[in-house]
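Bug #77: duplicate submission created two jobs. Keeping one. Sequence:
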Amino acid sequence: MEMVVDFPGGARVDAHFGSYTIKTDQPPMGGGEGSAPTPFLTFLASLGTCAGIYVLGFCRNRGLPTDGIRIVQRIHTNSMNGMVENVELEIQVPPAFPEKYYPALVRSAEQCAVKKAMEHPPVFDVHTAVV
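Kept job's structure:
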């Protein structure tokens, strides 16, 4: 897969792949307009939404309603360096959701490909090229 990242103006940085564009920006205090999430917030959102895809799939495969289900993601950072130390994903279900499926919901969310990529990070090869 290839993504093309460009700089459409200001502090915006966009990624294009297939027919999609992911737009990012910086907040005004960071020199941007705050017109889109920062790249890091987009990355963090990919964790919760990826887990959500697996929870959704689990429910759909069993004919379970997803009304009232949501995932609350909490990011805990190191106060000294600001780095993410813990990502908490709380799967909230309505009272009528069958309790016997709680552990399976957790197992399904743990299958998230973004989470797995973080647990087993790829090798990065950053270089320049003249085009």
